[in-house]
Amino acid sequence: MSFEDKVKELSLLGENVHCMECNTRNTQWASLSYGIFLCIECASLHRSFGVRVSVVRSVNMDKWNEEGYLKMKMGSNEKFKDFLRIQGIISLPTRERYQTEAVRDYMICLKENVEKELPECVKASSNTTVHTTHRINTMPSVSYTRLESVSSTDLRSSVSTTLNKITDFVSENALYLKDKGVQVGYKLNESVLRPSTTYLKEKGKVFYSKFNGKESKKVEFGQTRENVQVKYKDTSKWD
């Protein structure tokens, strides 16, 4: 049995049939970081956290390896919920919950337990170092293979993997771009919009004070333009 089929079987066991976050059925997505199954809406939310917090994969469309399968097997929605209850953080908002030290420790512990079960050759190929940076990361590289030598299954898996890399890249840098946008908007408001608004208000006051001596025209019903009398206050002071 392939790892893909094994993961599908796990998604149908116990609490795994209900989304970890919203408890709805049809859990066709998973977070490898915590070994939990998710619905498509909550999977999108997890993607927005960035790959350093939650690595999301499709149960049906992605290609699974032994490491990913073991994370889902050793984890589960039920185990993760029990952990959150013990820590007293299950009632926290979802985004805030995954920023706690307890959840980060759970992710590290799950990874270490999986690595103990993996053969040495698999450990060597799966170990990667994540570098923290304050600038936008470079776009993930994509390798191309001659189509003649690729089967339809391999091609679908390759396309799915590439799309996941692109999605992870966008999610990881979305918050950075949002913060930069807020900073630019604030500077624009402070240096251009606010001074311009103040200037126009002051000019409006000057204009109003200059012409407030003139009365508005009063037109009675039935009057024509020719017999409308316009009265003004004494304007000799303007001479």
TrEMBL record:
- What is the protein name given in its UniProt record? Arf-GAP domain-containing protein
List, alphabetically, the InterPro entries matched. ARFGAP/RecO (IPR037278), ArfGAP_dom (IPR001164), ArfGAP_dom_sf (IPR038508)
Biological process (GO) annotations held by this record are:
regulation of ARF protein signal transduction; regulation of endocytosis
Q: Which UniProt keywords apply?
A: GTPase activation, Metal-binding, Zinc, Zinc-finger
Q: Which domain of life is it from?
A: Eukaryota
Q: Where is the Arf-GAP domain?
A: 4-85
Question: Would you tell me the Gene Ontology cellular component terms?
Answer: Golgi membrane
Q: Which GO terms describe its molecular function?
A: GTPase activator activity; zinc ion binding
Question: Which is an annotated Pfam family here?
Answer: ArfGap
Q: Where is the signal peptide?
A: none
